[in-house]
Fold:
Amino acid sequence: MAFESLSERISMALRKITGRANLTEKDIDTMMREIRLSLLEADVNYKVVRDFTKEVKEKALGEKIMKSLSPGDMVVKIVRDELKKLMGDEAAPLNYNLSGPTVFMLVGLQGGGKTTHVGKLANYIRKQGDKKRPLFIAADIYRPAAIDQLKTIGKSLNIPVFEMGTKEKVVKIVGEGIKYAKANKHDLVIIDTAGRLHIDDEMMDELVEVEKAVKPDEVLLTIDAMMGQDAINVIETFNARLNITGCILTKLDGDARGGAALSVRYLTNIPIKFIGVGEKLDDLEVFHPDRMADRILGMGDIVSLVEKTTQAVEEEEAEKMAQKMQKGKYDYNDFLKQMKWIKRMGSLKGILKLIPGIGQQLKNIEFDEKQLAYIEAIIFSMTEYERCNPEIIARSSSRRTRISKGSGRPYPEVNALVRRFDTMKKQVEQLSRMDEDQIKNMQKGGMPQMPQPKKRKGKGKGKGGFRF
Amino acid sequence: MGLFDWFRKNKKKKEESKKYKEGLAKTRKQGSLSRLTRLFNEKDRIDDDLFDQLEEIFVMADMGVETTVKFIDSLRDDERLDDLEDMKLLQEIIVDKMFDLYLKGEIVNSNLNVNKEGLSVYLFVGVNGSGKTTSIAKVANKLKKEGKKVCMAAGDTFRAGAIKQLKIWGDRVGCPVITKEEGSDPSAVIFDGIKFAKENGYDVLLCDTAGRLQTKVNLMKELEKIKRVISREVPNAPHDTLLVIDATTGQNGLNQAKSFIEATDISGIILTKLDGTAKGGIVLAIRDVYNVPIKFIGLGEKMDDLEYFDLEKYIYGLFAELIEEE
Structure:
């Protein structure tokens, strides 16, 4: 994920230390230097870096280390604990208004992703199963076509947008918008404001006025994950003028290490509530500080993965498939279903990256999501009988030729799919033959023999993961 | 040091620098580089503490770890620092070295490359939200004022509202904007733009593109395609490919520069949003590591808030107080 380079670097520095019997002060100094440089390169605030490395060093040199199993592991644990502390303890939930319409307001610099995140946020809340009737208020009257952008997003989500053009004052637009929401029984209002510089007093006054008028339940500041050392000025100034209740860290799908995020909690105590991980309206996730700390250390993000999967997969279907697998039956229909789940879960790469040990290997591999569509086309060109009985396709080249023609995909590609399917089927059967103990063993080992086309699995246990 | 005398003597330059100064005033007063001025007032000798503080100041200005370490090391080794007593001279040495860091003994041209035979095509690329569309409008406005016949192609067919945004700017500036509907192939829009520009005798075509994070391989490939289409239609075009970078960008700016150079052979940078408190130090790092010059800087939201990048003025803007005091 976003912190990959940071985690690589820290793991490199730590690799020298894990497993050693003794730890000298020089070792610690070497490690601290690596961590310091790495954090600075990740745009973590200079002061935070200074404090952080100091704390870790003091703890590492202190008596606690003597009691631990191995000093190296202990330092790793300290770094991890301190990183967690640095990022705050818990994922912070959204505040709702129980007695009237809930009002959220998004603020931030230009180009931080406010308008897009108005859409993502509404989409997220709806997906959580809350039966809300959202309304957007278009309060960006400055940027050309900002209202159009919000309207397009509203249209795709089927959420109405309240607007009064660009001539009225923002406070008036918002006031009327809230009235409209109440009259039309909208219980969730999200206000899109114009991007502005934190030092533009006039523009900041406008936000203060709006905040006073509507008393929003959440004032969310969007922060670009790519921001450098200046991030803290921006956050502190916005927070001094407004009552910022949380941050949304955007553009984390790039390779920005997002060090600004670490600084936010440490220096301001404002929680980061969400992270933006793509341009689609689904690409919003709850920010989990503790998981992010693990991610920095290269331990993957198992919990996120589990959550993501359960959200997308209907449990019944999953159970049915599990039964089928246990019987050793696995056909193209199941394959197709699985692919649908994967698509719903978002980018395949995003998912795989969450699995410990895979992140680093995947760094240079780009998944072609189109491949999924091709595979689908091939399977759609099979008859129902063929899909249920994969072996007849494997046996007959004339069937494969017909499928190739029907799907418009070259013959070798059909062959490749048939082969890959066969391997997968075997793996599934193998899995189903194992008894519970074996499976448990495998889970302990970290990476089970997951059917995955990309080879070079981690060495099972703890690839990049540290044992405590 | 001749530089400072030169600034003092050259009144006209000072007038021109006014805009930079206004834009960068916030950078100086609230930003980290103001600490540079303070530091020199407090310090009366050169020691490790001074170098540490300098390091902190430059890192805080987003100059990057690598470039900062290099800069401080070369400052430590500078012979002029031996037996130096007047701290004012140290200021001058630092300014001087910042020039060296940027110029590297070359003459850096920040003008756009012009096609003397006909249409000049400029391609604008960058990550999401860096200010491409606004910058294009500003450049269009500037070139129009210089007497050029300018048109624009709305190549951002992805982001909702982007086409309309450019159209509104086109109306304000008074330039035609060539568009297709949302979701169409950006290369096709730009192809149409070139055709339109050629048929109607335009001097300049500015091509907008959708914002893309440099890690999205497919989107970077799309840029390569756009570039191919342009150079097929107009030989030697695009005459400039400009990477738009937000001044608040931290070290990721280096990754951006690297990936966009690989995909489209960036010839210059537009540094936007310098009117905030961000110091834009990444400019120096990018020039240092990848040799890409800065061509324009954006200093505000208005149509006229764009200046050709002028290193002298830029540094003058950052160090103005320091120089005027003398």
